[in-house]
Each structure stands twice: as C-alpha cells, then as structure tokens.
Design brief:
Blueprint: E1 2-7, E2 16-22, H1 25-28, H2 44-57, E3 60-66, H3 68-74, H4 76-93, E4 102-106, E5 121-125, H5 128-131, H6 133-156, H7 162-165, H8 171-180
Subcellular location: Cytoplasm
Family: Belongs to the RNase HII family.
Domain RNase H type-2: 1-199
Length: 199
C-alpha cells in the first residue's frame, strides 16, 4: 500500500509537497512509532524525530514537489497532482511497483490520476492522515521536508519570516508583503496578486 498526503496547499509562498509512504505486510505488523497517530499535534521541535522514526517504519518514502511558479501556471489542484506523480516516480526508482499497490490519498478528491497516472488504483479517504498510520507517516515526512526548505528560503529572504510562518498567511507574513512586495517564491496568482513584485 502507498499512502499520500500533501502539505503547503494553503500557503502564500513556497512549493506544495506531497509525501508518499509505502507499508508492506511485515511492516504493518510492527509497532507504529510513537507520535505518528497524532502527527498534526506534535510540537515543531519534536516533528523531525517523529518523521525520522516514521521513515524507518515504512518500507520506502518520497516527497514530490511543485513550485510556486507551477502553482501559478497550472493551479493548485493540478500542481498537487504533479507533486504526487513526482513522489510516486521516486518510489518507483526505489523499486516500488506502484501499479500493483492501492494508493490511499488523504482527502475526498483524487488529484493523482488526472495528472497522468491513470494506471494507479487511487482511493481518496477523508481524514486518512488521522486514521491511517501510513498516511500520517507520509504527512509528517512531507511536513518536515517542506519546513526545512522554507527555513532555507528564510535565509535568502528573511523579511518574510518563513523560518517561523513557513510561507503561510500569518499577520507578519502579510505585513512583510505589504512592506516589501512579493518575491519569486510567492504564488503571485493568489490573493497577494496586487502586491508589487520586488524580488
């Protein structure tokens, strides 16, 4: 089984990421890592540890990305599909037979197959990240990867405080956009489209 979940969908800046985690029969019988079932409640300082234990628990994992430019060009849903297809391609490179697996996708809409992956058996499941440990693993692995990327981008453009807000629409982020305009990492087609582009 492959489980997928996205992070960064609602952010104003940075890419969207889709995590994919594979659980086979032997691993599914192993004890689920502590903190994984409630991964969305794990404090940020503990999240990397939970993600590392999740990555050790699953048979394989990957994170696929779609950039802010791609989001602007094709829209968020198609970008999610693109990121998922990239994550699954990474799993294939690790030897995972994706076409033979059931793909559990967190949410109520299949954005993977319309992205060109028609041969996959995708099953959207609402709250999969809460009820399915492999989906929770995919979620926390992707979250830690995206948070790390946004922290790196903060070093490039510290005015937006991405190390703290991770590109989401916090008051300090919105104020920085008003003061400095949008950067090349912002999603210009979103609600900030009327802000000047200065970087």
């Amino acid at each position: 089984m492959i489980a997928c979940d996205e992070v960064g969908r609602g952010a104003l800046a940075g890419p969207v990421a889709v995590g994919a985690a594979v659980v086979d029969a032997p691993r599914s019988r192993k004890r689920i890592p502590s903190g994984l079932r409630d991964s969305k409640l794990v404090p940020e300082l503990r999240r990397a540890d939970v993600a590392a234990r999740a990555a050790s628990w699953v048979a394989a994992s990957a994170v696929g990305w779609a950039s802010s430019e791609e989001i602007d060009e094709i829209g968020i849903m198609r970008a999610l599909g693109l990121a998922a297809v990239r994550a699954i391609a990474d799993l294939r490179a690790q030897g995972v037979a994706a076409e033979e697996a059931i793909v559990i996708l967190d949410g109520n809409y299949d954005y993977i197959r319309p992205a060109g992956a028609w041969t996959l058996n995708v099953r959207p499941v609402i709250k999969a990240d809460r009820d399915c440990a492999s989906a929770a693993a995919a979620s926390v692995i992707a979250k830690v990867a995206r948070d790390a990327l946004m922290t790196e981008l903060h070093e490039e453009l510290p005015a937006y405080n991405w190390a703290r807000n991770k590109g989401y629409a916090s008051p300090d982020h919105r104020e920085a956009i008003r003061a400095h305009g949008i950067s090349r990492h912002h999603r210009a087609s979103w609600s900030i489209a009327d802000a000047p582009t200065l970087f």
